Structure formats: C-alpha cells, structure tokens
Known about the structure:
By secondary structure, this protein is mainly alpha-helical. It has helices spanning 2-26, 30-55, 59-89, 102-105, 116-121. It has one domain (2-93). Helices cover 75% and strands 0% of the residues. Helix 1 packs antiparallel against helix 2 and helix 2 packs antiparallel against helix 3.
Amino acid sequence: MGDVIAAALILAGVGLSLLAGIGLQRFPDVFARMHAATKPATLGLILVLAGAGLRVGNRGDVAKLVLAAALQFVTAPVAMHMVGRAAYRAGTELSPATTVDELGESGVAPPGPVDGAAEAQR
C-alpha cells in the first residue's frame, strides 16, 4: 500500500512540475511566469520528495529529503521576489492583460535609463 501512495505522490509531483514548465512557456510576461516557476514547481518537488521519502526507509535519507524540501520553501519565494523586483526596476513591460500595477501606484516607479556618468558616481 505504501508503494502505491509513494507512486501517486511522485506522479502528482511530476504532473505539477510539467504544468510549471508549460506555464513558463505560455504566460505572457516575466511577472506571470514567476508564479509558474515557484508555486506549482515547489509543490511538485515537495510531492516528489514525499514520495521518495516513503520509498526509502533510511532515516538519514529521509532527513536529507526533508532538508531539501525546507530549503526549497525558504529559497524559492525569496529568489522569485528578487527576480520580479529586478525585472520591474529594469522597466520590463507588463502584459496588456495586467489591470493593476501596485508598485507604480505606490510611487515605486521603475527608474529611467542610467547614463554612464551617473553609473560611475555610484
């Protein structure tokens, strides 16, 4: 019975990772792609690791899988937040379907082009 549950978890994780890859190809802008790169991919990895954890019986191997899952939960949201912030500040265009620009409304407008003299002073 444990093998069936492990296989189901791994299959569900692979399916979510596949959907994340499709989302990276299909979504219109970097801001939408960030969600496809983090949410289903992270959950997919967690499901694969949970399935693998059920298959291996060694406590040391399960501890390594738990550590990998914890690191994924900690690093993926922070990394995508930094990617999104950098893309916005670089002036990446929003998709035409975007209706609300919360950063633009709050006064955090993307900076204009940086000339060489201003860059040298920094």
